[in-house]
Amino acid sequence: MFVRGSGTELWDANGKRYLDFLSGIAVTSLGHAHPAIADAIAEQARTLLHVSNFFANPVATSAAVAVDRLLGGGGQVFFCNSGAEANEAAIKLARKFGGRGRHVVVSALGSFHGRTLAALAATGQPAKHEPFQPMPEGFRHVPFGDLSALEASLDDTVAAVLLEPIQGEGGVIPASEEYLRLVREMCTERGILLILDEVQTGFARTGRWFGFEHAGIRPDAVTLAKGMGNGMPIGALWARHDVAGVFAPGDHGSTFSGTALATAAVLATIAEMERIDAPARAVAQGARLTRGLEAMSKVASVRGRGLLLGAQLVDGVDAKEMQAALLSSGLVTNAVTPTTLRFAPPLNVSDEHVDEALSMLSTVLS
Ligand SMILES: *Cc1c(COP(=O)(O)O)cnc(C)c1O
């Protein structure tokens, strides 16, 4: 039970100190209790919290403009409260865009898109579907990275392809740049939407503002959440103007959509990330952490990009056991698969804290 945090450090109820190399699952990307974000939230709480989506507020408007600018412009933004809701909105948008009979969303095996019913149906993990069958109709899964399997699935019932640039929950598995480029072409040729789920990879986590930038492509729609508010619960769907325009008033909404409090956190998070050049920090500290991990005999390989990394452990080393042992020694990580430890420290993590984490890892692993 954690009671307090500051930057990369956490303290539990017994006063024990930890280094947080998970960031609440890639959420507190600027660290805990960041003074600029805390001030923005506090000031907004004293100014205007919420007016519902019947009215505009200047904070949500500015946050939408900032998100659109980071994504390259030319789009519209719908704010919601989580990654799953962002994907729900994207799936509804794809269905309206495709029209009746052309409503299928194709996603990848091993993907994770959230826990609500449609987002779960899009999630390519059959075991997660099982207790809740039947799943909603209109979802199809293909092996991640397999271009011909994707091509074979794209019949005239398909409205959209939904992919993560790096499968986060699936074990930190990056899509190749080539795959993403060819998927982009394939979708363009067929008039199918390419929706990228950047809930985990967005907001500088991979060393670019968004994961798709590594492949040099532009998606038609992007879903966002996790790091966007540095811990304030908020998600968003961004879509190209002409795609977003298929939603008519009343088609979609949320009482808390674009609430001033959460969008104030978004504005402050983006401003601080730009001030410190967060993508460059992710590149630099990602390289430092990767180098250290690769030097460890119990680490077979390191996957991922920037500060979204998965250390594949050698045969016989159990990631869950390591996660527990690391936690006792004061390092928060996550066994994202039975053989992979995931690391997602704050993007502004210091050299000293990376080195301290590596030293704990080295001791525990050996
Ligand atoms: C975490 C995650 C989600 C779900 O986000 P929630 O805020 O938990 O609903 C969706 N997609 C990806 C890629 C994620 O990592």
Notes on the protein architecture:
The structure is a single chain. By secondary structure, the chain is an alpha/beta fold. It is 38% helix and 21% strand. It has 13 helices and 17 strands. The protein has helices at 23-26, 35-45, 58-70, 83-98, 117-122, 126-129, 147-153, 177-190, 241-244, 260-275, 278-294, 319-329, 351-365; strands at residues 2-6, 9-12, 17-20, 75-80, 104-108, 139-142, 158-163, 166-167, 173-174, 193-197, 221-224, 235-240, 299-305, 308-313, 331-332, 334-337, 340-343. A seven-stranded mixed sheet has the order 4-12-11-10-7-5-6, sandwiched between helices. Strands 1-2-3-15 form a four-stranded mixed sheet. Strand 2 and strand 3 (17-20) form a beta hairpin. Helix 12 (319-329) packs across helix 13. The protein is globular, with a radius of gyration of 20 Å. 52% of the residues are buried. The mean pLDDT is 98. Pyridoxal-5'-phosphate is lined by residues 82-84, 87, 112-114, 164, 168-169, 197, 199-200, 225-226.
